[in-house]
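I am still getting used to backbone structure tokens and would like to learn alongside you. To get us started, please write out a protein record for me. Start from the sequence, derive the backbone structure tokens from it, and show both lines together. Once you have written the record down, we can walk along the chain together:
***
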Amino acid sequence: MKKTLKNLLGRLGWMAVIAGSVHNICSQDILVKPARGGGLNTNAPMIHVDVFYDYAANVMHATLDTSQGIAKLAPLPPGYAFDSRSNYFGLSGKAYNFQYAWNPGGIFTPPAGAAVWIERLNASPGLEVYDGPGNKTENPPRPYTPIFGAGGSAMIWKWYGRMAHNACAILNPRTNMVSAEYRIYFGDAQTGARDAYTNYRDTTVTLVWTVDPVPGQDLVVTPARGGGLDTNAPMIHADIFYDFAAKEMRATLATNQAVPKLVPLPPGYAFNSRSNYYLLAGKAYNFQYAWNPGGVFTPPNGAAVWIELLSASPGLEIYDGPGNKMESPSRPYTPIFGTGGSAMKWKWYGRMAHNACAILNPRGDVLSADFRIYFADAETGARDAYTNYRDTTIRLTWTVDPVPEPAIYRIGTAGQTEAARLCLLDADPYLAGSNYVIHLRRSSADSNSSPFESCLPLVAVAATAANGGPDINHAALGSCVDVQLVSLAGPPGARLSLREAGAVLPRFSLSTGEIAGTNCCPISVNRGAPGSDPYGYNPGRQFAVDQPGLYCLGIRLVDTSTNGPNGGPIHPSSELYRVYLQAGLTLASVNRQDQTVTAAFGGETGWTYFLEHTPGLELPVTWQTVAGPVSGANRIHTLFDATATNGLGFYRLRAVAP
């Protein structure tokens, strides 16, 4: 067995993965049921929203009881858990509460064919609502089904006319107060449609909760129509209609709205790693455009309307989702129109269909895609039997903020005097504090023993026109910039070396754990000649490490010239800067808190990552994907397994090639 396990671990190393273990928990959590006040608070009072329709005044009332204060969302304390087999297990790890109750405020009967419906108009990001527990007399009890948009559910919910406690929850709150606004109205008892009941007035009510925010954690949200967090962006219809009299397909794009913009989530917000829309993570996205029926028409016998991507800006991705809020089941966010190797054509299902469009690293500020819309075989999409029906084309356009080119560390000074200290100019986005990562790759693709290496692009900006300057805040003439490698953190026993272009042996090396090193490498080419330009750049210089893993390199900029006061340097040395270096495919950390395991790693742009788990390393080993995909963006990324068990387990990172 020892030999077998050793061989297996060897193969895991060859696959460039690191397993992180989750240790046994000495004591089991106490299983409890959800409490009305959240956490373990069973004594919190009910807070009624009394619903009543006054036929004499022709007005719907929703009266909120304000005598009981504001409900508070609270998580279970450590040592307590919900049964994983229960229908309320979806509240696990979240702050929750179900004090609010929709309650009859008097006796009234909906109009014939109608029911009372409640629609969520807006809500704080991340707020979830479930159809449960109802009330203690419900038989059978309510099923805790996600409602009001939670988990992609419909925004409308049919109230059943009795006291109904909905469970409200949030995973990672970042503010101390959240709210939701609802509309209460009569709608068709089956569909919720208001068309036949518009002569009955509706009403609105706003519910508010307090909550203790989780410092330093992302707030989990669902995708917004306008990208980022913009839930108010208008729909933009591409109305599709076939005029059989003119034998002409038409696609009319609404032009009364601004061009939509692809927008990423801002810092502090994230998509649930277990959702089908998690593939939008790290990308600028938007789904304002909608394929929409422009009139009533029926495809020819055996045909359907197909849409084909003819051309698109490089990197543009399109997904079959979210569709529209009335879709049941909701659209699955499947890659379409060539995304992820999918087919270039897609069968439209004849209803309003919002496709999510996204891009990882845009280089320009305007993107576009051209589509052909036509009749074709309903099963295959072949046009052969329908060429006598004319097609049409349409172009969709988006704006987007381009991503700057890869990091270049420009060296200058913090001011424009000789007394100003050396510094990195505009480098904050590329330092460890911003979670930026420089990737080191095997120097020989066919050898697992070769080092991981890359260029660290350090440039001393020019002071004269001869070198393309003068640049703002350049170092003084006669100064000479060197980079001092001060410290290295990373895998125990690993070493970093610096090798000049064309050299066989390294210039010097640095061990992990080393602090206050004195190794320097020159950047300026003037070697400190008086009055000379300190400009310098050495693109052939390679930084290499001998083990896979995440490293943090501490560097300082020093002026090694002797042209300053008393034969010393002109400029004082810089502060200490730290840069992340990622060698190979590894997990930087695997940490557990309660039932959630958090894995961190350095992700590279163009790769897609998954977190996988196995309970043990006995052969045959079965790995299960527990989080992902997430698209690499040259950053420290995190993936979460929110369903970790109490037993021993191993995790690994899997990357899919671009």
About this structure: The longest strand covers residues 177-188.
